[in-house]
UniProtKB/TrEMBL annotation:
Keywords: ATP-binding, Nucleotide-binding, Transport
Organism encoding this protein: Echinicola strongylocentroti
Name the record gives this protein: ABC transporter ATP-binding protein
The organism's place on the tree of life at top rank: Bacteria
PANTHER family hit by this protein: ABC TRANSPORTER ATP-BINDING PROTEIN ALBC-RELATED
């Protein structure tokens, strides 16, 4: 179970504060929606949370049970699905799963066959990802995220490129594989985050250009 506490965190690019003076306490199993207009900093916030783009100011504390996790270690305990994620298109689906889960442990009870079936991609098991449609690739991204045995899930525009059936499938993933984990959803679509118990509007913490 992962607990997160952000204290006075901020992110700046040159003279532009993307957000500042942000405090947030996230308890285990909390579901948090990150909202804001396009370009407001939702994706940047998730990258900061993941430790790939560190906060400029403030402190991020991560507590896994009784163990404190540093910002440099948190990547080991999370999984992410985002539009800017690139899939290795020379891999087949099965090859990608084998590669990914060589570094991440799988959700209990999930083997490769079960994952592929859960993604409804059985007929594409040995197909190169370069031949996948955008919707199929989004299913793969979400599958890699939800099927990873990580206490923290970061979802950026999770239904991007999904049709109505795919969007319903996303909701099923949340219910089946996300209920016992901490989940952040960066989105402008209430459908994608209507299960969240907290909402953070990133523009409430945005300042104008200044030194």
């Amino acid at each position: 179970m992962l607990e997160i506490r952000l204290t006075n965190v901020a992110k700046r690019f040159q003279y532009d504060w993307i957000f500042r003076n942000l405090d947030l306490h996230v308890k285990p199993k909390d579901k948090i929606a990150i909202t804001g207009s396009n370009g407001s900093g939702k994706s940047t916030f998730l990258k900061c949370l993941a430790g790939t783009n560190p906060f400029t100011e403030g402190k991020a504390s991560y507590l896994l049970g009784q163990q404190e996790i540093t910002e440099n270690e948190i990547y080991q305990h999370l999984a992410i699905s985002a539009p800017y994620m690139e899939l290795p298109e020379e891999f087949s689906l099965l090859e990608l799963l084998k590669f990914h889960f060589n570094f991440k442990s799988a959700h209990p009870g999930m083997g490769f066959d079960e994952m592929i079936k859960a993604m409804y991609l059985e007929e594409a098991t040995h197909k190169q990802l370069s031949f996948f449609s955008s919707g199929m690739k989004q299913r793969v991204k979400l599958g890699l995220c939800f099927f990873s045995n990580a206490p923290l899930l970061l979802l950026d525009e999770p239904t991007s490129n999904l049709d109505s059936k795919g969007s319903e499938w996303y909701k099923d993933l949340v219910q089946q594989y996300g209920h016992d984990r901490t989940v952040f959803v960066a989105s402008n679509s209430p459908y994608e985050y209507d299960f969240c118990n907290q909402q953070l509007h990133i523009e409430d913490y945005k300042l104008k250009k200044q030194l």
